Amino acid sequence: MSISPQRPKWKGSMTDRERFSRQIRGESVDRCFNMEFGYWQENYEQWSGFVANGIRTEAEANLFFSFDRIHTIGGNIWMSPPFEETVLSETEDTRVFRNGDGLIAEVPKDGHSTIPHFTRSSITSPAVWDKVKKERFAVDDPSRTIDIAALKKRHPEDRDYPLGVGCGSMIGKIRDMLTFEGLAYAVYDYPEMVEDMIETACRLVEHALDQLLPHFSFDYASGWEDICFKNGPIVSVDFFESVVVPRYKRIAERLHAHGVDVWYTDCDGDIRALVPGFLEGGINVMFPFEVNGSGHPGELLERYEGRLGIMGGVDKTKLIAGPQATKSYLESLVPFVEKGRFIPFCDHRCPPDVTYENYLLYLDMKESIFGAK
Fold first, then answer.
1. I want to staple 225 with a disulfide (CB 3.0 to 4.6 A). Which of 133, 172, 348, 349 is the partner?
2. What's the CA gap between 84 and 35, in Å, rounded?
3. C-beta of residue 3 within 8 angstroms of C-beta of residue 36
4. Rounded to two decimals, what is the model's pTM?
5. pLDDT in tens, 84-103
6. Which helix (H) or strand (E) holds 10?
């Protein structure tokens, strides 16, 4: 499908690759890197511009809005094969099924976007984990061999966009596999099992990095650690720093040896208690920085000036409130964008509560405030 851009690309004198690499390191740029973090499924069904132009995915939306290009590649670093997704029962309004992570989940039948209600995990004890580990987490699984030649053809060295290497998740995906409550209990009931899960995840990432890093000049690394909610982390800071952070350090050693010194991780909610551990482990950029959990991004950028970067941090509730609230909030970000190490965009996937018209106004304001002068 050919996508006709809805708006022109922001003017600039640098390539997307140069701009991203300089801005996230606090160096001077021609203008702000222009990106967003996607949308709820309902947006594709309700926003008039998306419906009229057949926009159904984030990749299509990025072309539609002419955002700067950014891309991440990686290997198969999680469960392989996953559990077979199976419907277990149905009522008039809900469906209960086992997902690919082995979780028993309850979701509404009408298909509206919501966080599934997970009732239990398929992994209930260390004995079950040992079996699942052997069956689904083998490092030598043939599916974990990366086709380097195909990736090099797709992402040549003379590319004009930033390319990142995926470093997966040390504990966020374990939360997915055990459920929120399951992980909280397992850390105390089966700490050795949880640490073995983290070690397994680390070895899978190391295996992928050993294949990828020698063949690409990566501009950043990325990860996913969704282990916080609005009141803070779901595991203790002590556990995080003593068990998880050492694994980050091992990954960081590989990254640094190949010149990769920018590593962001996606963690929602209030991340503030974990930032020192992230930084110690080598993760130095927070993404998408939910304001209602972690506060105004300027607070942490000042506290860890020169050490911490942020991608995101535009309060989505301001977009819901309307143009004036949006403009005031964007203006509060100006001094931090000017200092660098900060790329602003909506602090999670944009919800359908934001009207299409208000979203277009938000994009206009972003360009006016952060675009080339």
1. 172
2. 35
3. no
4. 0.93
5. 988 888 888 888 888 899 98
6. none
* Residue bearing tokens 């160096």: 27
Return residue ranges of the chain for CATH 3.20.20.210. 16-79+123-370
Angle at which helix 191-212 crosses helix 126-136, to 10 degrees, equals: 20
Residue keyed to tokens 């998408």: 288
Query: Which distant-in-sequence residues (6+ apart) come within 8 Å of 304 by Cβ?
Result: 275, 279
The tens digit of pLDDT for each residue in 63-85 reads 999 999 999 999 999 999 999 98
3-state SS class at 175: helix
Of 278, 174, 168, 247, residue with least CA distance to 212: 168
140 CB-side CA count, 13 A: 1
Q: Which residues of 6-35 are buried (b: 16+ CB within 10 A; e: fewer)?
A: beeebebebbbbbbbbbbbeeeebbbbbbb
Determine the residue type at 127: A
Q: Centre a 10 Å sphere on the Cβ of residue 129 and count the other Cβ atoms it contains.
A: 21
